[in-house]
Design brief:
This protein has about 375 residues and is of the alpha+beta class. About 40% of the residues lie in helices and about 20% in strands. The N and C termini lie far apart (about 65 Å).
Length: about 375
């Protein structure tokens, strides 16, 4: 019986690992684009940003390029983009800009992006993209009421959102990490920005972005995360994952806020490897939220936290993550291309074009 149970457990583990690997493989590219569209979408984003000289890159040009693709997708009534759609982009942006692999060719400057978007989508697009009332979910809309009518569940239908996979390993076996704090002008403005979940694509960086998938407040919202590796070589590789906000504590419930931060500080102190406190001694916690991973996430099983606190009269936002030991296929990819981007995305190194928290700080200044 014991031997039989061992065999059964081994089979179950094998199926679980196989399922995780399959989910990871399915999450390459974008949910709004089919596999046959991956090449031309990548070429377009390369032309708009990654292939340009680093000195000439502006991260909002990348957000603009994403918005052009997403707005075109929305106008196609939410079907996945296909290879045939490259024809419309060729007409709008110039066939020569998609040809060849020479890094000196095929780039698009901001004015060319806007001119091409006008040809592709209409003369309303440039003003709509610049208008906060007509931009949301990474999409530009003709009128504010069109944005209000948009249902992000159209994105959710195309996504491949598996079950939640919080960390289940004992705390001593998990990885605990606190990322660098980023100073912000106003905790209240940051909270307002985070609460307007449709604006999260506005804080996208060159290595990642969040897109909300539900008509939901912050608590319970599911985000698609797109992460990018290979940016230093102008050959980006896109992978996505999903997280859901499973807990949210604020000063509206001081007791819950205190318990949340006490448990986090205890975990960092007991299980972190020389990790700093989440909030420096004498600091005042203001907000904490959990972003819990779904199956196939590129970091494996666990959760990240966004934390807002005040210290010595200054406001800060930072991230702190807790993760189970990674399965081999996730660990290999993370070591090869993910670790540096992950740390930069959450503020380590203060590389502003790569850091969502720095982009959030700039947007709320």
């Amino acid at each position: 019986m014991a031997a039989g149970a061992g065999v059964a457990a081994g089979v179950l583990l094998g199926r679980t690992i196989g399922s995780e690997q399959a989910s990871f493989a399915r999450l390459a590219g974008w949910s709004i684009a089919g596999p046959d569209a991956a090449g031309w979408v990548t070429d377009f984003l390369n032309a708009a940003y990654y292939r340009r000289d680093p000195a000439e890159r502006e991260v909002d040009d990348l957000r603009l390029a994403f918005a052009i693709v997403a707005t075109y997708w929305e106008q196609k009534r939410g079907r996945k983009l296909r290879l045939v759609d490259v024809v419309a982009f060729h007409r709008a942006f110039g066939r020569h800009r998609f040809a060849g692999s020479d890094s000196s060719r095929g780039t698009l400057q901001r004015e060319q992006l806007l001119a091409g978007a006008t040809r592709l989508l209409g003369d309303w697009f440039p003003d709509a993209y610049r208008d906060d009332a007509r931009r949301g979910y990474g999409i530009a809309f003709r009128a504010p009421e069109d944005r209000e009518r948009f249902q992000p569940e159209a994105l959710l239908e195309l996504a491949d959102v598996g079950a939640l996979t919080p960390g289940v390993a004992p705390g001593s076996e998990q990885v605990w990490h606190t990322y660098s704090p980023v100073e912000v002008d106003s905790a209240e403005r940051v909270i307002a920005a985070l609460s307007a979940t449709e604006t999260w694509p506005d804080y996208a960086t060159e290595v990642g972005r969040f897109t909300p998938l539900r008509s939901s407040p912050l608590l319970g919202q599911t985000f698609e995360i797109e992460v990018v590796a290979g940016t230093a070589f102008g050959r980006p590789v896109f992978q996505r994952g999903y997280v859901t906000v499973t807990s949210l504590v604020t000063r509206d419930d001081e007791s819950a806020l205190r318990v949340y931060f006490e448990e986090l500080e205890d975990g960092l102190a007991n299980f972190g490897c020389n990790e700093p406190r989440a909030v420096a001694d004498g600091g005042e916690p203001i907000l904490g939220l959990d972003l819990t991973a779904h199956e196939g996430h590129f970091m494996g099983h666990g959760k990240n936290r966004l934390l807002i606190f005040r210290h010595d009269g200054r406001d800060f936002v930072r991230a702190a993550g807790t993760w189970d030991p990674m399965l081999w296929h996730v660990a290999s990819m993370y070591a090869l291309a993910g670790r540096e981007a992950q740390h930069a995305f959450w503020g380590d190194g203060a590389i502003v074009p790569r850091s969502m928290l720095h982009q959030l700080a700039l947007a709320t200044a």
